[in-house]
């Protein structure tokens, strides 16, 4: 069952597996030669005669012309040839992103109409090909192939053992982890009996039941509904219910609803809510009654299939897909609480922008989740202002992954016509970009609060993007430069610096600083964000701790200047002179750090290494 539910590609035999009758037999009946040809077909399917010899003998008996083929296809509609349930199964497989192939010992000329009807791409049909030669004709106008002249012996399916060879070629061409073969005959069973063949063989007995196949199959079915019903339906749970979590939930709940064409997700989506009071009632009760989160995402419906619960363990139990979207400072505690309750084989997605600083260096949220819970964790970061997404405006996000199959599943859960999900095999770069932009957004808010123009803001954003990229590579050397040009980098930085909460709070903080009516970031967080958390100041402290630890503060003057300003150690207007201020103050930080490590002895101005 596990292999079936995690298949990368599924290969079907055609005759008596997808169709009610063998194609060659059906053509023979059409030419009134059915009995003689059917006996040879049965012997081949039982493994009693060589496959190539059987094909040759049957086709010589019929001696079909191109006109015979056209007439047969015109008289036999593809829908009438297909066994019950086959189209529904293949539709579900394709909707889940699973590649579907037809590998047939029959002829491509007879298979293609059926494959097209079932939605299988022509390039994914591997079958024998007929040859036709020019017959006798009386004039040039009649010059056309008319006589059957054999078939292409170069096709693997023309020979015994051809199906495992065809699968072996697929493995050479594609990075498939799990290939399933479905068929009714001994030649299909061979696909599971040799190295390089399929990983799972499912015998199909809806038309014919052959003893060797029934005994040798890993799984034997007589109705395709068994396979369709056995396709995994993933239970989804969200941990966190802030604005961004709710915006993402509107996308996921819609895709997980009964309208899901692949029936890939369970309809109900669990939502863990930190219980709070809302106008004298429990917030979870209000959400379940109205299907809206009026405290953090007022005016937007979450989905009728969303069920809120204040019980964290209840929310995550039995979930296959866990979406984490809480303030990053709470994630470690949450992971420790649910450890031991997470379903084996589950996977996680972090929408959280932040990091955890430990004595041995920074730890990304995805790393923390993976280590604490023992499950795979992708990340999704981007220019994702919550209200714009819920309103259906065009948005995009970057999904960082290490497992492509999991990434495609997450992509299906969130992507919509107006929400584009880019896949990026750079988890650390994707997450670092989404995390670090919050610091730069603070600087953008300071620029706006000072009433400065677009030149200054553009200069700060350019410097910020550069420091984001360099810091990420300093901590994670394998981070890709191009990641910072994706939505998680450049786009998220721009959106957050013009419309995000960090820019909003920093702008108001700066205005009050200038007016002499100062307020703390904590006060403004409560006043402006109504309970939501400001991530930029905390992230700035975390990044600065890493820079000091690695003796790099002077090499990141913008980050260093921002941190000095938010702590009141430099005036806010120093953002205009960040390069000089940050470099000078950063060098002082390095000297202080080195002094504390070696117990003094440095002369002011001396540096123990060349400035990069």
What portion of the residues fall into strands of 2 or more residues? Answer: 15-25%
Identify the strand order in the major beta sheet.
Answer: 15-10-9-16-17-20-21-22
- At CATH level 2, the architecture of the largest domain is 3-Layer(aba) Sandwich
Assign the CATH class of the largest domain.
Alpha Beta
Helical stretch count?
27
Q: What percent of residues adopt helix (DSSP H or I)? A: 40-55%
Mean pLDDT: 89
N/C terminus separation: 56 Å
Specify the structural class. alpha/beta
> Gyration radius, to the nearest Å?
32 Å
How many DSSP-defined strands?
22
Q: How many structural units, i.e. domains? A: 3
Overall form: elongated
The CATH H-level superfamily of the largest domain is HAD superfamily/HAD-like
- CATH topology (fold) name of the largest domain: Rossmann fold
Largest sheet: 8 strands, mixed
Could you explain the architecture of this structure?
There is one protein chain. This protein has 612 residues and is α/β, with parallel strands linked by helices. It folds into 3 domains: 2-230, Rossmann fold; 234-425, NAD(P)-binding Rossmann-like Domain (Rossmann fold), CATH 3.40.50.720; 431-598, N-(1-d-carboxylethyl)-l-norvaline Dehydrogenase, domain 2, CATH 1.10.1040.10. Helix content is 47%, strand content 17%. It has an 8-stranded mixed beta sheet with strand order 15-10-9-16-17-20-21-22, sandwiched between helices. α7 (86-95) runs parallel beside α12 (224-230), α25 (536-549) packs across α26 and α26 (557-566) packs across α27 (578-598). It starts with a helix and ends in a 14-residue tail after the last helix. Mean pLDDT is 89; it is low at 600-612.
